[in-house]
Amino acid sequence: MSDARVLDVAVTVVGAGPAGLAAATQLAARGVGRVLVLDREDLPGGLPAQSEHRGFGLRRHMIPLSGRRYAEHLVADATRAGAEIRLQCTALKIASREVLAVSPQGLERYRCRAVVLATGCREAPWPYRAAAGSRPAGIFNTAVVHRLLTLMRELPGKRVVVVGSEDVGLMAVRLLQVAGARVAAIVDELPYLLGFRVNYLYSVAVFGVPLLLGHRVLRILGRRRVVGIDVAPSAPGRAQITHIPCDTVVFSGRFVPESTLALEAGIEMAPETIGPAITQHYQTSAAGVFACGNVLHGAESADVAEYEGARAAEAVSRYLAGRLPEEPQVRVVCGPAAASVVPHRLVLTSGEAVPLLARSVAPRRNAVIAIRAAGQRIAWAWRPWVVPHRATMVRISVPTVEHRGQVEVSIRGKRRGPDFTLRSSAVPGE
Amino acid sequence: MDASTEELFDVLIVGAGVVGCALARVLARYALRTGVIDREVDVGEGTSKANSAIVHTGFDAKPGTAEARLVARGSVLWAELAPALHLAYERIGALLVAASPEQVTALDGLRANGLQNGVTGLDVLSREETLRLEPHLSPAACGALSVPGESLIDPFGAAIAQAEVAALNGVQFFLGEEVRAIDRGPAGHIVKTAARRLQTRWLIDAAGLGSDEVAHMLGRREVRVSPRKGEFIVFDKTARRLVHHILLPLPTRISKGVLIAPTVFGNVLLGPTAEDGTDKTDLAVTQDGLRMLLDAGGRMLPDLAAEPIVSTYAGLRAVGDLADYRLEVDPVRRIVLISGIRSTGLTSSPAIAEDVVYRVQEAGLALRPNAAYRPDRPAPSWRPGHLRPCLDGAKVSGAPRYGRIVCLCETVSEGEIVEALHRPVPARTLDGVKKRTWATAGRCQGYFCTAALLAILSREGNAAVGAVTKRGPESEITGGRIIPRERRGA
User: Fold this and answer.
1) Cα B29 from chain centre
2) What pLDDT, on a 0 to 100 scale, did the predictor assign at position A401?
3) Which domains, and CATH codes, for chain B?
4) Which of B238, B396, B405 sits opposite A40 (nearest CB)?
């Protein structure tokens, strides 16, 4: 590790997606000094910049924009505020007052007063889910499929099975069909559709693609290239195996934080998400290192990431001014039916309003999300439904010092039954 | 038939696994025309690439066997060879962990066995000493035999590095060419592939799992090789903190048992299973196998269960019909049979090569030194366990492609990938790039970089993206160009 150019900046933001750009915009606008945003891609804007479909930025722009348009707004805002965006620049190491990054322009060390990690999320790799089978060519995730189709004009294959019914999987079905591939089926191990029903109708049903809910991938078949997959009902005790011939399997969704930099920096991680553990001020266990956006919780909408980025910027500027309280802290833990919660610790500051993002272990209808501090309920929210891959935001007022003890989030509601209305009767064959 | 029909080799090696590559390297020292032929498009694609990546000492081998002798010798040779070949090699030592008081009593016997095989430094450790060295071991551990010579190695590099030394010294590689038939010819043998006929004086069968098929072509119908599958689980680098040695259970009759070992890449490996099968192409991992591994791993190292799994794979050991290696030199027909090397070939390959070359000389092959021989190869700009070139500011300033990171998890730059595609034995596939650079082998398993890698392979190979493969023909990564809607048929 030698010969790195050294640059002094106020704040280094890692990742120019919605969270990072929003944080950089706010920081630059507050005049904290030089704000640098690094991104490894050729284009700034994160995932939205690569998405042509509409549905972004509803919170701020009041109408759904295409991902690309929405990203352009974010980039313009950051640039106008005075933040500097460095592209093709990969952060290699982070520490409390320092980021080491490399780009074709060279190796650089940014000495800074704060670091904001906004590295986003990615889909969990397929070995987690496809327990058995061989490892032939023709296994992808949607990010690769998306790049192949839109940037490289290549088909991943001719006959595809998509695994996972989140919106990203549903949209992959549409992209593949439109590009000329045939989607043989979309499969999800859960007995209900995870994405929006409108996306299912628009992207899957319209092409007559069979949906197999409550089915898991038993094994992938094929020596050199995929020749098919075997699926079976995920409910125990039912061993009916369905063979689906295909040359391609696309694993979609199940987003996990992209937290390699934080892991290697030895930052404390939240065991539920394997993303950095933070306080309500987006502060990690490393002094001066903040984290916001999907690196905390996996995929949420760009609106949520942007909102977190802006809030994180506010905390960073307080930190830089020496006005960010750090003690005393209590832990926020997952109680019954809560799968994860962000933030993971609360600094007991009187009366501060804080958004908690909680995810449920399973879908629930008529759900009540309850927040307890030292056994007493301090906040709750009702939602018509909650799903495991999207968080519910509950605003709480930070408990006072008298409420010391941990804060617990729990979720109650009616279990959601299988989506029989969507169950496909047609078993996909040749 | 093309012009190569007339080519005449002194020695032709069938099989470019670690044994074939070691032979090629040793033969390259002599003024011989040597060739290596393999049906796969890269070296080390069979048993050599899916194993436990350990250089064994041979402490547990049956004394008096060729295997015991060659494993012990191989272990010694690797310690010198690995640094000379710029190959990742770490002598971290193994603990053979006794899980019960009865097993503790067996440790002395194993120690004696090791001493008989010439293995030094063996030491029986108390329970306290064992747990001090490996604090994450199950408290049920009752003691251990310390085997300080057991080492980690880059198993892919072991074949590639030796092949590169051989190639740089004039050995010819015919990769992606399957031997269809072997006939007798005026000089000795005529080896036929779909594309060519190669004449050779000596023929060495080092075809691993396929060594019986090659032996059958030579009329040795009695040679049998059957596949014994071993499944493995690769854990995230976060698990590395749990393991400081290679952790071995007590061996059983058919297998060394399920071990836990760090890798030179920084991950932790759990495996293998041992299932005898018949299909030499079946590399599927099974749910039963993975469950068995997780149970065994959890019993030895309970904290491992909570660590993220990065990948799973299966390899096939070539189990022969003899209890020992089959190493036969036929001076009349000028044939060498190397078969049934099972799981110890990674360790023993340099010793097998040394042994075979000595015996071939005895059998009449004249070995005159190759005056131009150079024993090394250009160092790759990265090898496992070393800093990536992107961390070297001067290197990046001189060659900006080392500053363009392609694989984020393992911080592999475009520079390393381009280099792998232009080495003396170049990567020709996505798996070839992975074996040489570790790109796509990290925790995201290619989420970020697969598309970029395809673009680089296509550009550097002057081929369409649709022609890029995972491991040779019929493993094309994509399904070809998108056909515009107006040009699609009905």
Assistant:
1) 22
2) 59
3) 3-48+156-224+322-362 (3.50.50.60), 90-152+226-320 (3.30.9.10), 389-467 (1.10.10)
4) B405
